[in-house]
Amino acid sequence: MVEGDDVGQPADHGRAGEHADVAESGDAGDVGPGGGGVGQFLVALVFGEVVSQFPLAGGLYQWVRRLWNGRYAWFNAWIYICTITIGITSTALFSSDFLASLFAGTADAPGISSTPTQRLWIAIGMTVVCLICNCFGTRTLALISKIGLAAELIGIVLVGLYLLIFERHNSFSIFFQTSSSNHDNYLIAFIAASLVGLFLFYGFEACGEIAEEVPNPSRSIPRAMQLTVAVGGVAALFAFVGYALAAPDLASILSGKDTNPIPSILQSSLGSVGTKAVLAVIVTSFIAGVMSQQAAASRIVFSFARDDMFPGSRVFSKISRKRRVPMNALLAVNVVPVLIFVFVYFSPDSLTRIVSFQVLAGYAAFMMVVLAALRMRLKGWRPAGAWSLGRWGFVVNVAALVYGVLGMVLLALPTGGSGTSFVDQWITLVGFLVVSAVGLVYLLTMKPDRKSTAPEGDAMEVAERLRRRAAALESTTGGNPA
User: Fold this and answer.
1) Mostly located where (predicted)?
2) Mean of pLDDT values over 106-120
3) Which of these, 5, 29, 146, 170, is most buried using a 10 Å CB contact count?
């Protein structure tokens, strides 16, 4: 069940960045998806070892608490909750153009760019529908996630393969050009394409948020994370290559004249009926993406509250007896997205900045886990879950940390031209620092970490207990634990 829970998410983020990657083209553009996929797979491997030993609801928060301490875990959870909350927002908002194109697109104008009003109501509708579905429990989430996975495979991989084989309007040489039409400096183009790779492979960690709700999580969750990145990588590759080669007017996309190019590419290749069918599949994957992020955010708020480290802990630590869903937490995590929908309505240009902050904050939360795992390894920790990297664990951990730190540097780089204000150029970093500062002030003044008596920093002790238990079980079964 878990293996489908979040597979749709990387492609949803990828679809938001696909236009940018096609616009980069050339060598630089071709590097983005591959580099991001390999790096995030390393992170997924590190997460897999941690969650295999600690298959607990709350994911990142619980992992870093057991790897370091409560204070470090609180700050990580603060950053991550903000990240996933913005993730719900951006995924719902980015779905608006596809929904508008599905219902209002014509043969002459297949791609519809939604108006601010349309975007507002579509995003609210998407969020409410996904919230209602999530209220029915994990089984409903798993079912829709599986449908979303199938939608991704059909709408991206199969269609991308069809476009690649039968509908090529451009040659493969566009991937090997040494310059970018949007940048004078090739280094800038390479950096921009790398950023797209960072956007594409993001969301796999949410598989671990429902670890207490699935069977055999120590084995199934690590496998689900790796599958999520792998499927997202294949989908992103086929989407990028297939759509780029099938674009009937690549110049319009590169120049920014065609702001919603995917429906136009589909219309020229598949006709009206085929375009509508693929758009319906894409919308389905967006629904799965929003649902998975709602589930992830609600579980970490619930886990946070269960340890008495979140404002209103008594309210948010409750679970619905019938559905076994943290209903109060689920409702709460959708309040901020709706407020941001309204903000974006009055300031449409803010969406890109919001998404940039989301990805930087997400990578920061990831690297806090990777750093905590590396620190514990240096102190002697050997992961004792059912899934392990063995002797390769340390090397993979270091490589994942290097990748993540470099990714954060790229994401924090200034954007915009010479006429852009200082704040606008550095808005991603400024936003991240502001959110971090607010969290740190609350942490240092209110000291919420002192309210909790939950275990912390005990990764080595737990690992030793698990090994002793496994050894005892093996001795009583004659060397055959099964």
Assistant:
1) membrane
2) 87
3) 5
Residue with tokens 């996630």: 145
CB 307 within 8 A of CB 452: yes
Burial of 422 from C-beta contacts in 10 A (0-12 / 13-18 / 19+): exposed
- Contact between 297 and 141 under an 8 Å Cβ cutoff? The reply is no
CB 182 within 8 A of CB 272: no
List pLDDT tens digits, range 381-439. Answer: 999 999 999 999 999 999 999 999 988 988 888 876 677 778 778 888 998 999 999 99
Confidence label for 30 from pLDDT (cuts 50, 70 and 90): very low
| Residue 135, token pair as written in the block | 């209220």
Task: Kindly tell me if the per-residue pLDDT of 184 is higher than 90.
Answer: no
User: What's the CA gap between 149 and 147, in Å, rounded?
Assistant: 5
pLDDT of 178 higher than 90: no
Q: How far is Cα 163 from Cα 338, in angstroms, rounded to an integer?
A: 37
Most confident of 209-218, 234-243, 373-382: 373-382
DSSP per-residue letters across 24-52 = H-HHHHHHHHHHHHHHHHHHHHHHHHHHH
> How does DSSP classify residue 323?
T
Token pair for 54? 């600690």
Work out the number of other CB atoms within 10 angstroms of the CB of residue 474.
12
Q: Give the Cα separation of 143 and 154 in Å (integer).
A: 17
Give, as one character, the DSSP assignment of residue 183: B
Tokens for 437? 């500062």
Q: What are the φ/ψ torsions at residue 421 (nearest 5 degrees)?
A: -65, 160
Of the listed ranges 9-18, 139-148, 342-351, 424-433, the least confidently predicted one is: 9-18
Cβ distance 353 to 427 under 8 Å?
Answer: yes
Cα angle 474-392-481, degrees, rounded to a multiple of 5? 10
Q: What is the mean pLDDT of residues 175-201?
A: 47
With beta carbons less than 8 A apart as the criterion, state whether 344 and 351 touch. yes
* Residue 353 half-sphere exposure toward CB, CA atoms < 13 A: 20
Predicted pLDDT at 417? 65
What is the spatial distance between Cα 199 and Cα 185, in angstroms, rounded to a whole number? Answer: 22
CATH number, span 2-476: 1.20.1740.10
Cα separation, 366 vs 405, whole angstroms = 10
H or E element, residue 416: none
Work out the pLDDT band at 200, boundaries 50, 70, 90.
low
DSSP H/E element including 381: none
